[in-house]
Design goal:
Layout (H helix, E strand, L loop, with lengths): L3 H11 L5 E6 L2 E4 L3 H7 L5 E7 L3 H14 L3 E5 L2
Parallel strand pairs: 3-4
Antiparallel strand pairs: 1-2, 1-3
Helix pairs in contact: 1-3
InterPro entries: HPr-like, HPr-like_sf
Pfam family, one: PTS-HPr
Organism: Paenibacillus nasutitermitis
C-alpha cells in the first residue's frame, strides 16, 4: 500500500499551523511539515508519537489526530 496520499495530506495539514509538529518514530524525530522526512519514516505498522508545541497547538493536535486516523495510522498525541 502506498502512503503517498497520507504523506501529502499530513504535511499539508501540518503546514496550516504555526506550531512545531514533530513525529517520533522509535528513536527518530521528523518535522511533519517536511514531506521528505515523512517519506523516509512513515511506514505502516509502526506506532507514532506526535509532539506539538506552539500558539495554535490545540487546534493542530485535533487536526493532526483527524488526518492520521483518516489514513489508519496509529498515532499518540502527547500533551506537554
Amino acid at each position: 500500500m502506498s502512503n503517498n496520499a497520507a504523506i501529502v495530506d499530513i504535511s499539508q495539514t501540518a503546514n496550516k499551523f504555526r506550531s512545531s509538529i514533530v513525529l517520533q518514530a522509535e528513536n527518530k524525530y521528523i518535522d511533519v511539515k517536511s514531506i521528505l522526512g515523512l517519506f523516509t519514516t512513515l511506514v505502516g505498522g509502526h506506532s507514532y508519537e506526535l509532539h506539538v508545541h506552539g500558539p495554535d497547538a490545540e487546534d493542530a493536535k485535533a487536526a493532526m489526530a483527524e488526518v492520521f486516523t483518516k489514513h489508519n495510522l496509529d498515532i499518540k498525541i502527547l500533551s506537554e
